[in-house]
Design brief:
Strand order of the largest sheet of chain B: 1-3-2
Shape of chain B: elongated
Number of strands of chain A: 1
Helix content of chain B: 55-70%
Oligomer: heterodimer
Number of helices of chain B: 6
Number of strands of chain B: 3
Order of helices and strands of chain B: HHHEHHEEH
Largest interface: A-B, 23 and 26 residues
Mean pLDDT of chain A: 85
Distance between the termini of chain B: 18 Å
Low-confidence stretches of chain B: none
Order of helices and strands of chain A: HHHEHHHH
Radius of gyration of chain B: 17 Å
Shape of chain A: elongated
Distance between the termini of chain A: 38 Å
Strand content of chain A: under 5%
Helix content of chain A: over 70%
Mean pLDDT of chain B: 88
Largest sheet of chain A: none
Radius of gyration of chain A: 20 Å
Number of helices of chain A: 7
Structural class of chain A: mainly alpha
């Protein structure tokens, strides 16, 4: 019987990689990012949404270096893992972009052709959130992201469906989703800070 | 089917790697490029004193390379498995896997 559920080096590496995200900072940053994108849509300046990840990624890196590493420790993953993360990130970005552009194009085409415009308008309202749900779900399987990403994808999918049913503006859907991420991230972050054990390093 | 000639090798297995705590530490260093003391304490659940003592032994045997530096005012000790340590870990794993790869059935004779 193996109480740890770990059977070999690959499992150990996966466990270290998963625990890398236990501080909840990435959840908070992603939540803030989605919320800010929602705000740019509400303010009718969606183009500024492109700046959100550019601004938040350095914030995450600094917070991680200043807060998380002193508590969780420093690790440099293998080159294979780093390349895998890079490759997967590119796949996720391209997938998100292709989905959004395809749906947008289809919508514009169908509208100009006068095909079921009412139903299409309803469905399109939920597509941005649906795209996020798919990307979050993919991140679990392609990235080995923590198990909670499955919960997030269900939450985002629910918001997307609610958006389609109620016609809620995608901007407000993003605000709601962002709030969910920030709430969970804050709980994890608090738990992470409480887990801090002070000890002296060997001299 | 297990190679029974492998059992002789078990008697000569590297005792430095064979010790459970050191095996766990080496396993962690085997799968990453480098890690610091804090991460190893958290991941292995060893006490800082215990880990420190095992790391000294591994360093003496030149199985790990130790780098000390300061991040701001905070000291950071980084460990990396040396090629010698990596080979020792692979050899140990191969020997033990070979010896233990025996169908045990239900344990009844």
């Amino acid at each position: 019987m193996n109480p740890t559920g770990i059977s070999g080096p690959q499992d150990v590496e996966r466990k270290i990689f998963e625990s890398f995200w236990d501080d909840g900072l990435i959840d908070i940053i992603v939540g803030l990012g989605l919320g800010l994108i929602g705000v740019t849509w509400i303010l009718s300046v969606p183009v500024l949404g492109i700046l959100v990840p550019i601004a938040l990624v350095p914030v995450w890196a600094i917070a991680r270096r200043q807060i998380s590493i002193p508590i969780a420790g420093y690790v440099k993953f293998s080159r294979e893992r780093s390349e895998d993360v890079h490759r997967t990130s590119v796949i996720l970005i391209i997938t998100g972009y292709v989905v959004l552009v395809s749906v947008g194009t289809l919508y514009v085409f169908a509208r100009s052709a006068g095909i079921g415009s009412d139903l299409l308008s309803r469905l399109v309202v939920g597509v941005p959130a649906l795209t996020i749900a798919v990307l979050v779900l993919l991140s679990r399987f392609l990235f080995d992201m923590p198990f909670r990403t499955l919960g997030y994808s269900i939450m985002v999918l629910s918001v997307s469906i609610l958006g389609m049913v109620s016609g809620l503006d995608p901007a407000y859907q993003f605000l709601a989703i962002g709030g969910g991420f920030v709430a969970v991230g804050s709980v994890l972050f608090r738990r992470f800070l409480l887990s801090d054990r002070k000890f002296d390093e060997p001299t | 089917m297990a190679d029974m000639s492998n059992l002789g090798e078990v008697l000569n297995v590297d005792r430095l790697v064979h010790e459970p705590a050191r095996f766990v530490v080496m396993m962690h260093l085997f799968v990453v490029e480098e890690a610091d003391f804090v991460l190893l304490v958290r991941q292995t659940k060893l006490s800082p004193g215990n880990l420190s003592s095992h790391m000294s032994k591994l360093e003496e045997a030149e199985y790990v390379q130790v780098t000390k530096r300061f991040v701001g005012k905070r000291p950071q000790t980084i460990f990396r498995l040396t090629p010698k340590g990596r080979t020792a870990f692979i050899d140990y794993r191969r020997t033990m896997t070979g010896a233990l790869d025996v169908p045990v059935g239900d344990g009844k004779r």
